[in-house]
Fold:
Amino acid sequence: MNEEIIIAGFGGQGVLSMGMILCYAGMVEEKEVSWMPSYGPEMRGGTANCITIISDSKISSPIISMFDTVIALNQPSVDKFESAVKPGGLLIYESTNVINPPTRKDIEIIGIEGTAEAAKMENTKVLNMIMLGSFLQKKPIISIDNILKGLTQVLPERYHHLLPLNEKALRKGMELVESAKASV
Structure:
């Protein structure tokens, strides 16, 4: 298994945290991992992305330009990275924030209303966990139990009381993928 992912969105949406959680969980499963963040100087509100690689074998380089999966949380990220999905790959995007959805025919495209679901959960900061749950439902490269272990490493201890909410958001994301597949 070798999964090359780019996660992209606005700063403050938890883009970098998603990649970091995947990597910590991958380490728990004794996989090879790579996490390479990229963000503008403005941080919150500016664009951010991270390349995350999870593999059963050594990773030759963290610098790649084509991805197995793109997780896009906003329109600029869909516009920039839709063409970077390998043929046969996966693009999961946050459909509440995207006006012009992706159109490629050679990849699987799934729109998830993560922002709307996070609002229903009364905490918009769990958007990233909803999207991560959606990805893991499609590509279960890491177990949910180990994702939760990774989350405890990334989430500052003062926020550990939010771990149950984050787990609920992960599972909601998994459900949303199933309903998105049913409606296609």
Notes: Strands lie at 2-10, 32-39, 47-55, 67-72, 85-94, 108-112.
